[in-house]
């Protein structure tokens, strides 16, 4: 039960960080939980509560009627029959969980002492069984955030009602002592009401608090150097049909909280989808803050050599001479003539001030990287000679999928365009260079991008939830991900 309502609380946090709201109140990620999702959560929570209550003990009761003292001890719940469960969003406040029409079976022991005077003393004992029906519970839960930015959760109220109890006594003179049925019924009903609320409140106010503290809203990746921030930027939206939360969705370098120099576009306000339990809107802002960060710290560069290409089946591609193989010398004749029996190094670096950008359009995710490629050669005597440099434009279309509870991507289409800036090679043309660089892209750049895309990025979810039945739609400015989820 705790996991379920902590999950709901995460979606309905009341406030974000003040400093982030001041910087931008537009989210890079929006999450909406539909009534279908809310129904699933409440019923899954009920399954947990059912297993939790079975075997629970109820406080002993001691009473007296006239000269008769009686004790009801060892009372325990032997079964809990699930009531109807309904969780609703209380606009502006939190969540209300209502259980109605439940029943429990109870066993316990009874004992009595009767004393008329010092000479007349009677006592007896036995066991009893009781079936209690008409259980109704209503729990109010509020949610918020502490000073460190972690979500908080606690109950603000709990009420319960117990209908009737059918008591059967066994042992001793039980046939005679059924006059004590009403005393046992009163004891069971009173203690059971308290037990139901105590169990619910304990789950939220103790275990729920611990779960909230463990919720990871800052996802580290790239060897823990980068952090994807899922903290809130605005209060949630509570309606009778869904609850909605708004998250930062920005990538930061570990230890550096500087904001990106641009803002996300407003996310869609589509009508609630009842076909799935949950809907994510992930803005292209998330990817663009990553590109901006990589550019800011000069991380978009690479020196490509034949050693890099060995794992991709082209260990000779950067040779100037390659009998029986494909290499740069066969694409650009001037390279093989001026620098025979040498190997080429391609230093690729993004253009200063132009970070890798991603754009989401209707049905398509596009990427664009602009930079320079410096081609140098290592001669047989070990010297390095600059050959030429060219401006490079890389554009791509990406297919997006869901796997292992992560959003993953794969290059669907890739185009290169080269423009010579300077050359020391006497005979070289841009079509030759384009053709060779396309081979580099097919051999190494695209597979590398696909390796990164297969790692993907996490969405904010608890460890014991699993996404199922995903459906992805690329819209203008954002990816819409519709999912169901399963509690593990």
UniProtKB/TrEMBL annotation:
Keywords: Disulfide bond, Glycoprotein, Signal. Residues 32-256 form the Lipid-binding serum glycoprotein N-terminal domain. One of its GO terms (molecular function) is lipid binding. One of its GO terms (cellular component) is extracellular space. InterPro entries: Bactericidal_perm-incr_a/b_dom, BPI/LBP/Plunc, Lipid-bd_serum_glycop_C, Lipid-bd_serum_glycop_N. Coiled coil: none annotated. Residues 272-483 form the Lipid-binding serum glycoprotein C-terminal domain. Pfam families: LBP_BPI_CETP, LBP_BPI_CETP_C. Residues 1-23 form the signal peptide. Belongs to the BPI/LBP/Plunc superfamily. BPI/LBP family. This is Bactericidal permeability-increasing protein. It comes from Ridgeia piscesae (Tubeworm).
